[in-house]
Amino acid sequence: MTTTTEQPSGTEPPHVFRDAMAAVASPVAVVTAMDDGHPHGTTVSAFTSLSLTPPMVLVSLDNRSRLLALVRRTGRFGINVLGAHQAELATAFARSGPDRFDGMPWSTSQGLPRLPGSASWIAAEVQEYVAAGDHTVLLAHVTAAEAATGGPRPLTYHQRSFGTHTPRPV
Hints:
Layout: H1 14-22, E1 26-27, E2 29-35, E3 38-44, E4 47-51, E5 56-62, H2 66-74, E6 76-81, H3 87-94, E7 107-109, E8 112-114, E9 120-132, E10 135-147, E11 155-158, E12 161-164
Antiparallel strand pairs: 1-11, 2-3, 2-6, 4-5, 5-10, 6-9, 7-8, 9-10, 11-12
């Protein structure tokens, strides 16, 4: 099922909204998919857990994304939640071009590309695609999940730069 959303009249210009969202710290991940044995991936900061029972995630991909077209064909994707030490990896997968995996170490898990050293790994199957402006939201069932032992601090994106979350003592 696909739901279409319309732009309400009187909304803020895109640059004002972009500036407001820069104040929100977001986790960073590389979403991946496989196409005829070739890995594909892109950096995202719009993803989150959606449900515990059943386990589900939400990922947002640009409508022009080649990865979105691939996920529509396969119905599956992986989420490599990046650690604070992986900012260069996030930048590499954020750039345009088909060669993002060139020179990158990777393996397969659940038949999907997996990046070593990530804070956590999730494999998911799409249940629903929701049209949302210039993006499509993927609502997906989690088929596998794993957190790194002693996990690294998460990579976050805030005020247009990468950083990390530092826990406050309780």
